[in-house]
Specification:
Layout lengths: L2 H9 L4 H8 L14 H5 L10 H9 L3 H5 L12 H5 L6 H14 L8 H13 L7 H9 L4 H10 L1 H9 L18 H25 L1
Helix pairs in contact: 8-9
The structure holds iron/sulfur cluster (SF4) (2 copies).
The site of one iron/sulfur cluster has 15 residues, from helix 3 and helix 4.
């Protein structure tokens, strides 16, 4: 368990709902859910998930912290917004789903090897230094994310597509050199990201100190 997770378990020992309200985007809406099930019934993927949205919200109120935060369900939300437009209580369900995933990741509780979580991490690491996505490197990172041998196999499988993309200038080999293209002020971006991290960390530290 990460030190941050241990502190938060202590801090919100009696109420996972309060923890979600304080730390998860849209979390203060969870108590408004009336368990009608419209969101789960409208979700094109929910029936295939361990816990569709309505069930996750019920579990939050029932204090099922570990089951919620280690769940793969919120990682599979595709942001289709079917749930939001139909919820009679107008809960920002999509945002809560992504908020739960982000919070779980922050605490190191995301399911290991969950494909969306891995893609999100690879995408973020690709983009954060230069402020733009290097598509060539992103594609290669994804092909090779399960090891060298599988990466080669995947690359060979996609070689025709790759060649077509090179020919039509959809990817440029020079993007592999020196980190590729980026925004004009990557240093400024790093300052913004560092500040955002500082704010998030101090928000959680202040909550822990207050209780
Ligand atoms: S549709 Fe809205 S009120 Fe109904 S279960 Fe889903 S979140 Fe709750
Ligand atoms: S936005 Fe996410 S949770 Fe809502 S219906 Fe679409 S996939 Fe399901």
């Amino acid at each position: 368990m990460s030190p941050l997770n241990i502190s938060l378990v202590e801090n919100y020992r009696n109420s996972f709902l309060s923890e979600v309200e304080a730390n998860v985007e849209g979390g203060n809406w969870v108590k408004m859910c009336m368990q009608c099930g419209v969101c789960s019934g409208s979700c094109p993927l929910g029936s295939a998930w361990e816990h569709p949205p309505q069930e996750l919200f019920m579990m939050i109120r029932a204090g099922k912290r570990e089951a919620v935060l280690t769940s793969a369900s919120m990682w599979m939300c595709t942001s289709c917004y079917s749930c939001i437009v139909r919820c009679p209580r107008e809960l920002p369900i999509t945002h809560i789903m992504h908020g739960l995933a982000t919070y779980a990741k922050r605490l190191g509780l995301e399911p290991k090897n969950q494909p969306t979580a891995r893609f999100a991490e690879i995408f973020w690491n690709n983009m954060k230094h230069k402020g733009r996505v290097n598509e060539l490197k992103l594609g290669l990172s994804l092909y090779f994310m399960n090891g060298f041998a599988k990466g080669i196999k995947e690359t060979l499988k996609k070689q025709k597509l790759g060649m077509r993309m090179f020919k039509t200038k959809r990817v440029a080999p020079r993007e592999l050199m020196g980190g590729g293209h980026g925004i004009k002020d990557p240093g400024g971006l790093q300052k913004i990201l560092a500040k955002a991290e500082e704010i998030e960390t101090s928000k959680i530290s202040n909550q822990i100190k207050q209780d």
